[in-house]
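Please fill in the sequence for the structure shown.

STRUCTURE ENCODING:
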C-alpha cells in the first residue's frame, strides 16, 4: 500500500542553491524509505516581498487580481527550480502549475485571500494527482496559489503554502503533512521573547489552532481549518530528521455546538480588590477546595464574575474567605445555568459570529447571562431548561449562514 507524504518546503528553507540541493537530497531519502512524496514549494526566500514592493512601486493602484498574477510567479518559478534539483537526484517528477490541466487547487475569486473549494479540489486530486503518484512521479506543486473555475489565478493569503499542503494531505489521505521550516520544532514560546523555551513534542488540533491565533509563527491558523481526522501535521527542519520535530494530531476543526451536562452557577463578587493578586489566588483556592470547576470568568473595575459547576456550599465558603476578610464587599449567585459552547476554526474570519449566536436566542426570549470568547470558541450562559432549544436555534442559524442565506 502506497504511503503518501505531503512535504512543504518554505521560503526560509529554499534560500539558495545549496539549500535547494539539500532539500532535494532529503526528498530522495524519503523515497528510499518507501514513501511517495508530494512536494509543495513556497517562493524562494525574499521573492514574494520583492514582488509586492515592485508592483506597488510600478502601480500603487494595482488590482488584487493583478497582484495575484504577479505574486504567483514566485511559487511557479520555485517549482521549476526544485523540479530541476529533483531531476539531478534521479527522481521522476511533474510540475503542477496553475496553467496545467492537472492543477488541483480551485478557489473562489476572493483575490489575495481566496477560499478553497474543497469538493472540487478533492475530485481533481483524485483524478489528476493520485494517478501521477501511483505512476511513480513526485508532484511538485506551487504553494500559495489557486485558480478559479474560470481560470483566473488567485492566492491563498498569509501562510498560503501551508494551507496548500494541508489541503492536499487531507485530499490524498496522506500519512503525514510535513512542513519543513527553519526551526525543527514548536517551542513553548517565542525563543526571541523568553528564556529557555521548551520544545513541544505533540499538540492536538485545538491547541495548535489556539497558539497560531495567538501569534505563534509555526503554522498559520487558516491551514488547520482543512486538516481532517487521521492526517498528522509535523513541523520539522532540513537540519534534523524530517520525522522528528512536533506532531499536530487530532480531529478536524469543524464547527461544534454543545451544552454543558452539569449545571453552572454564575457567582458575582463586587468590590473585589483587583490590584491585589492574593485575592485571585484565594478565590481559586476556595473553588478548588470545594470540588468546583471554574469554566469561565469575567471582570471589570468593580466586579468579578465566576462561572463554576459543582462545589458544595461554595457561595458561603467564598463569602467567608473574601468578604469576611475584607477582600470584597458582597457576593451573589445565580444558579442552574448551562454553558452553550460554539467552536470552529473559521470564527475569527467570520464577521458577526456573536450576533448569529445571540440574535436567535433573543428572538426566542432566551436570556444570555454571560458571554465569553477565546480563540475559536464562543461560550454563552443561559438557563439550563432552555439549553436544548438554544442548541437547535444556534445550529440552524450557523448552518444558514454557512450556506450564505
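FILLED IN BY: designer on duty
SEQUENCE:
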Amino acid at each position: 500500500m502506497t504511503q503518501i507524504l505531503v512535504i512543504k518546503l518554505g521560503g526560509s528553507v529554499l534560500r539558495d542553491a545549496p539549500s535547494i540541493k539539500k532539500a532535494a537530497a532529503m526528498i530522495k531519502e524519503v523515497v528510499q524509505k518507501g514513501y511517495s512524496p508530494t512536494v509543495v514549494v513556497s517562493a524562494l526566500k525574499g521573492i514574494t516581498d520583492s514582488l509586492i514592493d515592485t508592483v506597488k512601486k510600478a502601480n500603487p493602484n494595482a488590482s488584487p487580481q493583478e497582484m495575484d498574477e504577479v505574486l504567483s510567479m514566485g511559487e511557479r518559478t520555485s517549482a521549476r527550480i526544485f523540479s530541476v534539483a529533483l531531476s539531478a537526484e534521479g527522481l521522476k517528477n511533474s510540475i503542477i502549475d496553475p496553467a496545467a490541466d492537472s492543477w488541483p487547487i480551485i478557489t473562489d475569486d476572493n483575490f489575495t485571500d481566496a477560499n478553497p473549494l474543497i469538493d472540487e479540489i478533492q475530485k481533481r486530486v483524485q483524478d489528476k494527482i493520485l494517478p501521477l503518484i501511483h505512476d511513480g512521479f513526485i508532484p511538485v506543486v506551487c504553494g500559495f496559489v489557486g485558480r478559479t473555475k474560470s481560470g483566473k489565478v488567485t492566492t491563498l493569503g498569509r501562510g498560503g503554502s501551508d494551507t496548500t499542503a494541508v489541503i492536499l494531505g487531507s485530499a490524498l489521505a496522506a500519512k503525514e503533512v510535513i512542513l519543513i521550516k527553519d526551526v525543527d520544532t514548536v517551542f513553548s514560546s517565542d525563543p526571541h521573547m523568553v528564556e529557555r523555551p521548551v520544545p513541544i513534542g505533540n499538540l492536538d488540533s485545538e491547541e495548535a489552532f489556539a497558539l497560531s491565533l495567538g501569534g505563534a509563527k509555526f503554522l498559520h491558523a487558516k491551514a488547520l481549518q482543512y486538516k481532517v481526522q487521521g492526517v498528522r501535521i509535523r513541523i520539522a527542519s532540513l537540519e534534523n530528521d524530517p520525522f522528528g520535530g512536533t506532531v499536530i494530531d487530532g480531529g478536524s476543526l469543524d464547527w461544534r455546538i454543545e451544552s454543558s451536562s452539569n449545571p453552572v452557577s454564575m457567582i458575582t463578587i463586587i468590590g473585589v480588590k483587583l490590584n491585589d493578586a492574593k485575592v485571585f489566588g484565594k478565590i481559586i483556592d476556595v473553588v478548588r477546595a470545594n470540588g468546583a470547576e471554574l469554566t469561565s470568568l469575567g471582570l471589570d473595575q468593580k466586579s468579578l464574575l465566576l462561572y463554576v459547576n459543582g462545589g458544595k456550599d461554595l457561595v458561603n465558603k467564598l463569602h467567608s474567605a473574601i468578604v469576611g476578610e475584607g477582600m470584597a464587599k458582597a457576593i451573589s449567585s445565580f444558579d442552574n445555568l448551562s454553558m452553550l459552547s460554539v467552536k470552529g476554526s473559521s470564527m475569527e474570519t467570520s464577521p458577526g459570529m456573536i450576533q448569529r449566536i445571540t440574535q436567535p436566542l433573543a428572538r426566542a426570549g432566551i436570556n444570555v447571562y454571560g458571554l465569553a470568547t477565546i480563540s475559536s470558541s464562543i461560550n454563552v450562559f443561559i438557563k439550563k431548561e432552555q439549553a436544548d432549544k438554544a442548541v437547535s436555534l444556534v445550529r440552524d442559524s450557523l448552518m444558514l449562514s454557512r450556506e450564505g442565506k
